[in-house]
Specification:
six-stranded parallel beta sheet; binds 5'-O-[(L-methionyl)-sulphamoyl]adenosine; Isoleucyl-tRNA Synthetase, Domain 1; 2 domains; 17 helices; Rossmann fold
């Protein structure tokens, strides 16, 4: 995978575990592909124009740009905290982005796909979207303000792209994943597509249209283009040629923009649509989508304080299958953490380090080339590879943890802590160390810092992140003769 993106988040919102779900999942996917030897460029950023930001800035008595500069920090900090390995962080207020938006607009305009008209209707500020009267009751129930709008707008001829989009979907079966979301997008297209407004005159916080500076670009047209900007569009053709098309990861709330508007805009501008759009469901809290009005937003930092960064990352990757909605609960998080991290993985590491310390003089022995665990490691690699390939981190981790479970059972069956030092004991400990080495690599996309710690404690140099699959997990890679260190509990148990 050459280029993977997250949505760019509204800069004035406070990051919550829903936004972080997308970013952590995309981060893990990027890390997996890098382990597979692919040069994966990973992008995230913030969406800084539009009415939402303008209103927030006004309410705080500062300019929109000052407001964005102040609030963007919250996103940068949270991604640092969560060990997100993005290669770039794009802000739509950057000059490089203005150039890209203007170029896309101009191309669509020159192609005859943009015309002047009037918009009269309703607009949801929270969603930065034009809405229909039948959508209003639900929006109001969620506390999302709907306003009347009447203004001269430029429109994009989305209707012209109905058939080209259907053809694109037909010839690119993996364009939207999973299939349930692909069908949802196809359903929208088949209902018939209406042209959409791409400019505003009643606000000025945005990018002026190249041919009519009295209009600013509609925030979604502006925001979607960020994916091109960060790939070097329009000036760096060589880079853009190498990077594009991208893979986008998004939540289901913005499916229509990414799976319909965006490919149509790109077709109009003569640019290839994305390789695929990976769409996940919502995290719900107490049965509701998280929102400011429902007052049920959870800050990632609060959970990190209790579970650690890797405890946090692991939970959402393992417990919230990619695709459907999933309910978050603190109790569930404690249970999962204790079972998988404190007991299963944490125990394996501490048992191995203890026995090697007391019975092997602190020097890790080499594994048995014919160990039955070797076969289990191959199965884990194959299953994890398939699962990551279809964007199913929860299954990839489940399969990886099966290998940890097998190593723990192996120890329980042989009870090396009761054995005399000697060749038999060394073989068993070597096998367990080899499983730890392999698991450090396979689990690295989810728990990178803990994988580094495991690696170091079993005496290996460098980082499991530098390993390359599939070769690196071949049974027998742990050389033996390395110092093994006990250290503190990797994942201290949490009291429920
Ligand atoms: N700025 C637009 C996106 C522009 S992309 C060109 C936007 N921003 S947002 O801040 O509202 O972020 C929306 C995204 O955050 C969702 O698509 C999803 O990825 C994530 N989530 C927000 N709430 C979520 C949940 N409750 N659960 C899971 N993900 C959620 O829309």
């Amino acid at each position: 995978m050459r280029y993977l993106t997250t949505p760019i988040y509204y800069v004035n919102d406070v990051p919550h575990i829903g936004n972080a779900y997308t970013t952590v999942t995309a981060d893990a996917l990027a890390r997996w592909h890098r382990l597979c030897g692919e040069e994966t460029f990973f992008l995230t950023g913030t969406d800084e124009h539009g009415l939402k930001v303008q209103q927030a800035a006004e309410a705080n008595g500062v300019t929109p740009k000052e407001w964005a500069d102040r609030t963007v920090v919250r996103f940068r900090e949270i991604w640092d905290l969560l060990n997100i390995s993005n290669d770039d962080f794009i802000r739509t207020t950057e000059p490089r982005h203005y150039a890209a938006v203007k170029e896309v607009l101009q191309r669509c305009y020159d192609n005859g796909d943009i015309y002047l008209g009037h918009y009269e209707g309703l607009y949801s500020v929270a969603d930065e979207a034009y809405v229909t009267p039948d959508e209003v009751p639900e929006l109001e129930r969620q506390g999302r303000k709907v306003i009347e709008m009447k203004e001269e707008n430029y429109f994009f001829k989305l209707s012209k792209y109905e058939q080209p989009l259907l053809d694109w979907y037909e010839s690119h079966s993996g364009f939207v994943q999973p299939t349930i979301r692909r069908n949802e997008a196809l359903g929208f297209i088949r209902q018939g597509l209406r042209d959409f407004s791409i400019s505003r005159t009643s606000i000025d916080w945005g990018i002026p249209l190249p041919w009519d500076a009295s209009h600013v670009t509609y925030v979604w047209f502006d925001a979607l283009t960020n994916y091109l900007t960060a790939a070097g569009f329009p000036d760096d053709e060589a880079r853009f040629g190498d990077m594009w098309p991208a893979v986008h990861m998004i939540g289901k709330d913005i499916l229509r923009f990414h799976c319909i508007y965006w490919p149509a805009m790109l077709m109009s501008a003569g640019i290839e649509p994305p390789t695929s759009v990976l769409v996940h469901g919502f995290l719900t809290v107490g049965g509701e989508k998280m929102s400011k009005t429902a007052l049920n937003q959870i800050a990632p930092a609060d959970l990190v304080a209790d579970f650690g960064v890797d405890g946090y990352r692991y939970h959402f990757l393992r417990d919230q299958p990619f695709g459907p909605d999933g309910a978050f609960s603190y109790e569930g998080m404690v249970a999962r953490y204790n079972a998988d991290l404190a007991n299963n993985l944490g125990n394996l590491l501490s048992r191995v380090a203890t026995v090697v310390g007391t019975k092997c003089g602190g020097v890790g022995p080499a594994p048995d080339p014919n160990s039955a665990l070797g076969e289990k490691a191959t199965v884990a690699l194959d299953a994890a590879t398939t699962a990551w390939g279809r964007v199913a981190p929860s299954i990839a981790l489940e399969e990886t943890w099966r290998l940890i479970g097998a190593a723990n059972s192996h120890l329980e069956n042989h009870e090396p802590w009761k054995m005399e030092p000697g060749a038999d004991l060394e073989r068993i400990m070597g096998d367990a160390l080899e499983v730890l080495r392999i698991v450090a690599i396979l689990a690295y996309p989810a728990i990178p810092a803990s994988s580094d710690t495991i690696w170091e404690r079993i005496g290996l140099a460098g980082s499991p992140g530098d390993a390359r699959l599939p070769g690196a997990t071949q049974w027998g890679g742990y050389p033996g003769g390395l110092p093994v260190v006990k250290g503190d509990a990797l994942f201290p148990r949490i009291k429920a």
